[in-house]
Amino acid sequence: MVTQVQIIEWLQVFASVINHHKEELTELDAAIGDADHGINMDRGFKKVSSILPSIEGKDISSIFKTVSMTLISSVGGASGPLYGTWFLRASSVTAGKQELTTNDLLNLLQAGLNGVIERGKAQLGDKTMVDVLSPAVTTFEKAVNESKGSVEALRLAVAAAEQGLKDTIPMLAKKGRASYLGDRSIGHQDPGGTSAYFMLRSLLEVVEGSRRSKYRK
């Protein structure tokens, strides 16, 4: 089970990871985008981090919905709507829950991916965060079907996400600002895919206990 406390902890850890890597994300975005992904994500997740104490006691769905609204209102560019949609869809499949089973996690990850695809109109191979999220979900689902637990399923999913991220480097961008560059987008790692990988890796680190935050009781 993944508890409500761990969800809060995950959001705090993810915010810290984004802050630590904001310059890297901005440099990646400078190569093929507007050079603001790290700045925008850091701004949004600092806001998320600041509101976590006020939502500690709420159910997981309410937490995700609050995060969604915060990101949509505070993150510029495409990242705000895409991450906002991811968390909003996650909230829609976790109503009233204080803890999540492995199947709940699968539903959450799948719903988030579907939301990003619908909002961004991107598909696998377009050099976007979908290229990280999609293999992670596929791998997690396979692990669930093989009766693996949440931690092992997440480890496999994060490994697939990492490979998906590396696979964005030789891709030609077909969506977003990077698509305007044509062949010049080839050879660069996707910044949105990078932050999506950080999101999934942060979740794994909290669930397996290798990363802790001030919210761990």
TrEMBL record:
<dbReference type="InterPro" id="IPR004007">
    <property type="entry name" value="DhaL_dom"/>
</dbReference>
<dbReference type="InterPro" id="IPR012737">
    <property type="entry name" value="DhaK_L_YcgS"/>
</dbReference>
<dbReference type="GO" id="GO:0016301">
    <property type="term" value="F:kinase activity"/>
</dbReference>
<feature type="domain" description="DhaL">
    <location>
        <begin position="5"/>
        <end position="205"/>
    </location>
</feature>
<keyword id="KW-0808">Transferase</keyword>
<dbReference type="InterPro" id="IPR050861">
    <property type="entry name" value="Dihydroxyacetone_Kinase"/>
</dbReference>
<dbReference type="Pfam" id="PF02734">
    <property type="entry name" value="Dak2"/>
</dbReference>
<dbReference type="InterPro" id="IPR036117">
    <property type="entry name" value="DhaL_dom_sf"/>
</dbReference>
<protein>
    <submittedName>
        <fullName>Dihydroxyacetone kinase subunit L</fullName>
    </submittedName>
</protein>
<keyword id="KW-0418">Kinase</keyword>
